[in-house]
Amino acid sequence: MSPQSILFVCLGNICRSPVAEGVFRQALTQRISAEKARLWTIDSAGTSDYHAGEAPDPRSQDSALRHGIDISQQQSRPFERIDFEKFDHIMVMDSSNHVNVSRLTDVPSHKQKIHLMLDASFPGENRPVPDPYYGGEHGFENVYQLLAEASEKWLDQWT
Q1: What residues are annotated to the active site?
Q2: Please, which of 113, 120, 139, 152 could form a disulfide with 135 given CB 3.0 to 4.6 Å?
Q3: Which of 83, 60, 79 is nearest to 70 (CA)?
Q4: pTM of the predicted model, to two decimals?
């Protein structure tokens, strides 16, 4: 399959979506050659601009780093309408993110790009990636594990 462009979206772009970006990038480079992986576009964004320009939450960074993924250089940014044109797939973390992104377009082909991240792991269940922001360390590890499994399953479809 040809290279894809994927955008991961959560509320603030400091917990779930930066980890999803890092996890997916790692899974991709383990599956295909580094040369082919560089042709893919992988990014993350938030439905809000609360944390624009900030690095991911330190707990997300720590969780990812325990699995060999450095997300410390990522910077939060808000989702923009132009993202519908730039990306093939818009992977949202929960139904609230889905609603917020969907409200930004009336174009059917744009709406078809929006998917719940865990749909690959739990088809038809509309399961969210839980927001670990107010929880403990276990919540961040749980998010990592859910994202790692879903990333592999999406890659099964796209590679």
Answers
A1: 10, 16, 131
A2: 139
A3: 60
A4: 0.97
